[in-house]
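Backbone shapes recur. Consider a single case.
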Amino acid sequence: MTVEVRREPATFCDWEAVLKLLQAAFAYQDDRIDPKSSVHALDAASIASKAREEHLFIALDEGELIGCVFARAEPGALYVGKLAVLPPRQGEGIGRRLMQATEEFARQTDHKVMELDTRIELIENHETFAAMGYVKTGEHAHEGYDHPTFITMQKLLD
């Protein structure tokens, strides 16, 4: 596997490719989560805007975009979101490598805590993040819901 994972510089501009990647990676959730994923509200312009405000990490295989994750500084933590790997490439450790890259970045920028949210219905995601050292720290509801719709998980860094 010749996968390269890197923090993308400000010159990156293939937002359509990132959009297609996110849509493909999150499609399996459509019939499983409520409310629908915020991926449905994204377009190339909103992803470009997100990348200007956050840090984009990408995974490439011979120049093909196969994975990404966004990270942003929050009070007390580096928050990661929109972790995505092309469905045919899932299970190869690409998501784990993207998460490791964000953790390295967190350490370099003096963050002691990593944080993420995952939908309450996606138990397999809870288990995957737990295997990476994340622990559940809370349950929350999207606006308009009277029951938990997502959980927050954190990882303390050395």
Q: What stands out?
A: The longest helix spans residues 94-108. The domain at 3-111 is CATH 3.40.630.30 (Aminopeptidase). Strands lie at 3-7, 55-61, 64-74, 77-85, 113-119, 135-140, 150-156.
